[in-house]
Amino acid sequence: MGHAEVLDVVTDPERYSSATSRFLQVPNGLDGAAHRLFRRALDAYFTPARMAALEPAVRDVARRVVSELPRGEAVDFTRDLGTRYAVQVMLAWLGWPDELEEELVEWVFENAAATRSRELERTTAAAEHFDHIIDRVIAPRLERREDEPRDVTDELLRERVDGRLLTRPELVSVLRNWTGGDLGSMALCVGVIGHQLAVSPDVEADVRSRRNDPDGLAAALDELLRIDDPFVSNRRKATKDTEIAGCPVHAGQRVLVDWTNANRDPRVFQDPDRYDPEQHAQLNLVYGAGPHVCPGRPLATLELRVLFEELLDATTDLSHDPGSPGVRAQRPLGGWSSSPVVLTWGGAA
Ligand code: HEM
């Protein structure tokens, strides 16, 4: 499926339902009015004002993880830097205890291994482990739902959708979507961007020139994710007999929305490897499109921008040891499961 076909599918929710799982998925597995109600309530957690208020905490985490990176050896941007950073930002954002850090880091690896194995038993076990972590976090907080909220998790527990509080399974599902999916993708995003900066001095020079231009830097990072999109695919289910680019699709049939392929469709991006942030921004599908477009994009962008700002400040060069090229992730994951980058420290380091 190319760019046009992906857009055709994801912008027509009446023809292609997102209810593809037997598990409750809020909001991603919902359609129509129910989906709109949840999105209206949940999108409010990612407004520009909220992101601006969160930025100092994100920067503290970024400074700390960058300052703690080992010197004199390559840094694995996906496994070490990306995973630890994603987990620490998530704990700070949601107000969860720091003691969960190691368990969550381990969980990201366990979940990636389970996804790679494609074994239902392993993916179910990883999902259940995550739900158990969330349950442990929210159980004591549900007891004091009447008190003033102290953080984003407390606020979510008091959120009303269509005039009612969310049920416990709904809360677990929202938090799973905000965290479980994000941790792995954020780590892969850090790996993909680090790799491209390390192998391409021209791209690195351009990205460094955007250091004091937050929007320009964010556009550059989006473009690097387009070129090697680590968030590979989502699913839909046809609600009626239809067709995609002349290929018949029957009611009930599953359709794979392949973001990675769409983002490298040569009919849209003549040379998919060409780095051109401004020109390609409008066509970039890294964060999806249509009613299910990623609500967490502002947070993901904030996290990535701040991390790379801190990295650029602390280093003078990112390079690559041709002897350890890293390990490509296997579908259904994308990007690099291991992305070693050699850092030349300098500047503020
Ligand atoms: C790390 C980089 C990220 C990428 C590349 C990414 C990408 C995407 C894409 C392509 C979709 C569309 C799914 C579809 O159409 O079925 C999506 C949906 C979603 N994303 Fe993200 N995302 C990222 C980070 C985040 C973050 C940080 C959060 C929240 C904290 C988040 C929460 C969600 C949720 C809840 C949905 C489902 C929305 C709905 O169904 O209405 N994502 N994301």
How would you characterize this protein structure?
- The protein has 349 residues and is mainly alpha-helical.
- It has a domain at 46-235 and 294-345: Cytochrome p450 (Orthogonal Bundle), CATH 1.10.630.10.
- Helices cover 54% and strands 12% of the residues.
- The protein contains 13 helices and 12 strands.
- The strands form 5 sheets. It has a 3-stranded antiparallel sheet with strand order 1-5-8. Strands 2-12-9 form a 3-stranded antiparallel sheet.
- β3 and β4 form a beta hairpin.
- The chain is globular and about 55 Å long.
- The mean pLDDT is 94.
- Protoporphyrin IX containing FE binds at residues 10, 18, 27-28, 39, 177-178, 182, 185-186, 189, 231, 234, 259, 286-288, 292, 294-296, 299-300.
